[in-house]
Design a protein that fits this description.
- With 376 residues, the protein is α+β, with helices and mostly antiparallel strands.
- The protein has one domain (2-368): 4-Layer Sandwich (Penicillin V Acylase, Chain A), CATH 3.60.60.10.
- Helix content is 26%, strand content 26%.
- It is built from eight helices and 20 strands.
- The strands form four sheets. It has a nine-stranded antiparallel beta sheet, covered by helices on one side. A six-stranded antiparallel beta sheet has the order 14-1-2-15-16-17, covered by helices on one side. Strands 5-4-20 form a three-stranded antiparallel beta sheet, covered by helices on one side.
- Helix 7 packs across helix 8 (349-357).
- The protein is globular, with a radius of gyration of 20 Å.
């Protein structure tokens, strides 16, 4: 029994390391400098994300509604479950159900970025999830920023990985969730004057912005991947945006992403148009902007989920080469990315198999899902 518990403990620690790979690792290196923001007014809700990392492999995955999923990731024996009320499309680099980015069919977008200052509150009686599965849980169960915030009443994040989250919804609401000095801090509404984050606390980012422009200073932020300077450049882009005059907010969002681009390390540029339910993206491996129409996808859990290589191009008719998801495809991605990530290359086959097989634990019960997504 002791040996079994010891093994599970070490597996859990390894999964914490794996979760770190699902986000932008570190902020001191120029290769790990992510940014996220939201453009919103009465008619526009567009969210952009720049993902910087050393490798660019990934899958775009259609996640069905109607799945009963287990909180039990490593075989600890818990029977706790949740139901995916909403389908989603996610961008995954280290396995299905461990997303870095995505949008659900209610128009909810969640981005996760590294934050060195993170300190999670102590564990309590709430159900817990790691930093990555928490994102998929929200895509499965939440339709709005308010839903995500309310979920903290029943769900906690258990991890040693230091992150913060940017959340936006179809109505144009946005929030930043951080964990600093053991406390959960939420910036939204009047406490979110700039709808953006990089890799510094939101308070520090605003203070730095104030030193440059709040007093009327004409000093321009330095170029380069530094977190605070990226925040200022994004803030300027948000301030300059005029929804009535700008003909295409998606194009504008890509221009903003180019302002924080880190040549050689920016792997994915993602833009979500939450009003039209369209996803636009390009990658270092394929600079062509591709589009995914969420309303044209099948989210029925009785149908094998669609999966797409993130670098794939559409055919002459503009159709992307979706395939039916299989555990083998998931495992191939895991092996490819683990082998190219130095601190994961030695991960044993048994752990890789657990990660690859976890999504197949879900049970399809189509009658359980909400068939009328909403979110503004």
């Amino acid at each position: 029994m002791i040996r079994s518990m010891d093994m599970l403990y070490h597996q859990y620690k390894l999964m914490a390391v794996i979760s770190a790979c699902v986000i932008c690792i570190g902020t001191t290196s120029k290769s790990h400098a992510c940014s996220a923001f939201s453009l919103a007014d009465e008619s526009i809700s567009v969210t952009g994300k720049s993902y910087d990392w050393d490798i660019g492999h990934g899958l775009v995955i259609v996640n069905p509604r109607g799945l009963v999923k287990s909180f039990d990731f490593l075989g600890q024996g818990t029977d706790d479950t949740w139901i995916s009320k909403y389908g989603s499309v996610t961008f995954n680099q280290y396995g299905r159900d461990l997303p870095q980015s995505g949008m659900n069919e209610a128009g909810l977008v969640i981005e996760v970025l590294w934050l060195n200052e993170t300190s999670f509150p102590p564990d309590d009686a709430r159900k817990d999830l790691d930093v990555s599965r928490w994102i998929q849980y929200q895509f499965d169960t939440a339709a709005s920023v308010d839903d995500v915030i309310t979920s903290f009443e029943r769900i906690q994040i258990r991890s040693n990985i230091t992150v913060h989250y940017f959340i936006s919804d179809r109505s144009g609401n946005a929030a930043i969730v951080e964990f600093v000095e053991g406390k959960r801090i939420i910036h939204s509404g009047n406490t979110l004057p700039v709808s953006a984050i990089t890799n510094s606390t939101y308070v520090n980012s605003l203070e730095y912005l104030e030193t440059l422009i709040g007093s009327g200073s004409t000093h321009e932020p330095a170029a380069g991947p530094g977190s605070l300077n990226r925040f200022v450049r994004v803030a300027k882009g948000l301030k300059d945006f005029d929804g009535e005059e700008e003909p295409d907010p998606v194009v504008y969002a890509f221009d903003m992403l180019d302002e924080v681009k880190n040549p050689g390390y920016t792997q994915w540029q993602l833009v979500y148009d939450q009003k039209t339910m369209m996803i636009h993206y390009r990658t270092a491996g394929n600079p062509e902007i591709r589009k995914i129409d969420m309303e044209a996808l099948q989210f029925d859990c009785s149908i094998p989920p669609g999966v797409l290589d993130i670098h794939a191009s559409p055919d002459a008719n503009g159709t992307l080469p979706w395939k039916a998801y299989t555990q083998a495809i998931n495992r191939a991605l895991i092996d490819e990315t683990y082998n190219e990530t130095p601190f994961l290359a030695a991960t044993p086959d048994s752990i890789r198999a657990l990660v690859a097989g976890y999504p197949d634990k879900a049970i399809c019960k189509p009658e359980e899902h909400n068939t009328t997504p909403s979110g503004g």
